[in-house]
Amino acid sequence: CLVLFFSGLDTITGMYGETLEIPCNIGAIKEEDVLITKWKYVKGLAGDLLVKQKSQNVVDSATDEYKGRVSMGANSNLLLSEARLSDQRTFTCMVVASQDIREYPVNVAIYKMPAALEISEKAEELEIGKLTKLGKCVAADANPAANITWLKNNKPLVADEKGISIQASVMVDPVTGLSTTTSSLEYAAEKEDTDAQFTCSTQHTEGAALVSSPVTFTITYSPENIVLQVISQGPLVEGDNVTMKCIADGNPPPTSFNFHLMETMVRVDDSDTYTITNVSRDATGEYKCSLIDNPSLEASVDVKVNYLDINLSPSGSIVKSAGSALNLSLQIDASGKSKVSWTKDNVKLDKEPIFRKLTYSDSGRYECQVTMEQLSRKASFELLVEGAPVIRQLSKQRGEDGQHKVLICEAEGFPKPAVSWSINGTSPVESPFINGKITHKITVVPSANLTVSCTVTNKFGMDTRAINVSSCKYKCSGKNNYSDQTKLVVGIVVGLLIATMIVGLAYWVYMKKSKQGSWKTGEKENGSSEEEKKLEEKVEENSQKAEV
């Protein structure tokens, strides 16, 4: 008596186009006890595939689509090559033993990964806020049908029917039965999407995720901000060229603008700059630029043209008389705070010169420099102080050898005074004529006491001064000459002392007698005060009569 057993239904999976191995028996009956092994399938009509009796070869009874595709492997397993979707059915392995018959049904599922994903029908550009078809992603020839996910910077996009819209469809190949999934993405871009990477992906049941190559898009948007710049190497000054540049943040950026120049508007096409040449101080003011297609979007900038003008009065060559005054006037017209400095003959002065009473030393070239930031202006005048000459000092010195005397005449005046002496001297020396001053020296050897005069003259007048010069009675030199001079000085001093003592003694006697007489008569002493004063003046006069 044979007993028929059925095992539970198992399901195995295979990959499309590959060889599928379907297990049989799984060790429930020992191989030596098996008499017959038979593979068959059920899908609609039943069909036999393979039969193997003990100690005999396998008999292939397959027909139609399985002819040439089936074989028996180890453990009586069914080998099915070139797996197809039509192979998704139940295959049964029947095992006949001496005491029983067992059947092992196995359900087969066939899977196929989709082909590589690619984004096609890409948009040329995306406009901010406008829902635009970004592209299409296709997962072809898959089983089961693939589910496609769109990603931006590796983050999934979820349809919200506002800024993101995703439409998917599945087509089944009537021959192969494989499914092709198509997904289209409509997307409203944002400004932050510049350089964003968009991809599509699918995760299959039996394999790793597939991801398309990333794509980027040009994001276009209307300008929202505009800036006006002044291009300059530094602060603007009169005579400079000033270039204004208008910058807007749209994409693509605008290339044509309106420039508002004070009261004038200038349209500039295919350029974002405008240049004003040779600007003047009148160009100071507010400037604007705006979009041609959106005049309300504008930018402005204040332009300042720096200037510096000076007027020095008097200027040029100035001739003034000594002792007179000279009034200076420096007028400054500047766009900012300025700084003034003065020089005389290229030597810096501590302050502005003031001429209340001109002297010859005031003659020279005066220059003022006015600076304001990088601007600098200069003005100058040449001052010449002239007048009649004046002798400031006439002096004498003893020569080093004691045999001659040096006369020195110091004078001022302009033009240069001519110097003359009333006697002929030797070794004349004249100093350089500087600041209206001149010094003239001569050497004389007087044989007697005499008076020498120095005379200075120019076209405005003359001046004369005299000096007494004593003679040199002893013609000697060196040590002896010095001794004689010493004796002479000592004699004079002793004589003066003796004369002073005699006068003092006479004065004492006189006062004594005067007092006696007044006591006798009872008169006051005030009557002798005038006589006392005259006597004192006489003594003083005698003491001042010494001469070198």
CATH architecture of the domain at 5-111: Sandwich
Q: Strand portion, in percent? A: over 45%
* Mean residue pLDDT: 84
CATH superfamily of the domain at 5-111: Immunoglobulins
Low-pLDDT stretches: 1-6, 475-490, 515-548
CATH class of the domain at 5-111: Mainly Beta
Rounded to the nearest angstrom, the distance between the terminal CA atoms is: 183 Å
Gross morphology is rod-shaped
Gyration radius, in Å: 66 Å
For the largest beta-sheet, the strand count, sense and barrel status come to:
8 strands, mixed
Q: DSSP helix count?
A: 2
Tally of DSSP β-strands: 42
Q: What is the CATH topology of the domain at 5-111?
A: Immunoglobulin-like
Structural class of the secondary elements?
mainly beta
Residues in helix, %: 10-25%
Protein name: CD166 antigen homolog A-like
Domain Ig-like: 114-216, 223-302, 323-380, 389-470
GO biological process, one term: adaptive immune response
Biased composition (Basic and acidic residues): 521-548
In short:
The chain is mostly beta strands and 548 residues long. Residues 521-548 have a biased composition (Basic and acidic residues).
How would you characterize the overall build of this protein?
The protein is mainly beta. It has two helices and 42 strands. Among the domains are: 5-111, Immunoglobulin-like (Sandwich), CATH 2.60.40; 118-220, Immunoglobulin-like (Sandwich), CATH 2.60.40.10; 226-303, Immunoglobulins (Immunoglobulin-like, Sandwich), CATH 2.60.40; 389-469, Immunoglobulin-like. Strands 31, 33, 34, 35, 36, 37, 39 and 40 form an eight-stranded mixed beta sheet that branches. The longest helix is centred in the C-terminal third of the chain and has 44 residues, at 478-521. The termini are far apart.
